[in-house]
Amino acid sequence: GNSVTQMEGPVTLSEEAFLTINCTYTATGYPSLFWYVQYPGEGLQLLLKATKADDKGSNKGFEATYRKETTSFHLEKGSVQVSDSAVYFCALSNSNSGYALNFGKGTSLLVTP
Amino acid sequence: KAGVTQTPRYLIKTRGQQVTLSCSPISGHRSVSWYQQTPGQGLQFLFEYFSETQRNKGNFPGRFSGRQFSNSRSEMNVSTLELGDSALYLCASSLVLGGTGYEQYFGPGTRLTVT
To answer: How many other β-carbons are positioned within 10 Å of the β-carbon of residue B20?
Structure first.
């Protein structure tokens, strides 16, 4: 079946530090991959996506590259801000599950001034 | 465009009662999915509706049901509430990605507390 594994949090960084949140997946075929962000008390916001191997998704300084050879979709940002503090979810959708999203457990990020 | 709206935002119910949650998708989006978010189980897919038909279903008991109306608005119902149904229920409105899947946009959620 389909599954997503994310690094455990919480992750605490100082402002302007480099961020990496690891995400690996298991799926057959060619899933689409997503990163969502959830701020306290809110729903999920789509941060970026990639729909095929070697695609790079990017948004608001965040990037992730779809690596089929390592089944990974790691999230990176060169310089985090306090406002990036949130929970980040890696997810995949696949035709064999009717495109329902399979989520990782989420990684909590706290950025301190 | 207005985003996905969900009502109510908060609900408190008693065990054994039933509850109905509502979701209005983004204008033009015909697919609506529902997810349950809990600290223990994380985010789990409940079901998806497209053009008033349930097209996909997750692994939840029959107490969880839903429907979609002709204007794409959707409701989900939980009957005979249990304490474990306490969760954030998220609705997502979908944009088709040209055959490679959907791009799902989430509403703010309904926080259900069962006492």
So the answer is: 14
Residues 6+ apart with CB under 8 A from B28: B1
Instruction: Please state, in angstroms and rounded to a whole number, the distance separating the CA atoms of residues B42 and A3.
Output: 13
| pLDDT grade for B98, boundaries at 50, 70 and 90 | low
Q: Which residue has the tokens 């204007």?
A: B71
Q: Do B101 and A89 touch (CB under 8 A)?
A: no
Q: Is B106 left (phi over 0), alpha (psi -120 to 50) or beta?
A: beta
| Token couple for B107 | 């509403």
* Partners of residue B66 in chain A, C-beta under 8 Å: none
- Per CB-CB distance under 8 Å, the chain A contacts of B108 are 42-43
Position A45: which residue type? Q
pLDDT, tens only, A58-76: 999 999 999 999 999 999 9
**Which distant-in-sequence residues (6+ apart) come within 8 Å of B77 by Cβ?**
B18, B19, B20, B21, B64, B65, B66
Min Cα–Cα distance to chain A from B58, Å? 9
A96 vs B: CB within 8 A: no
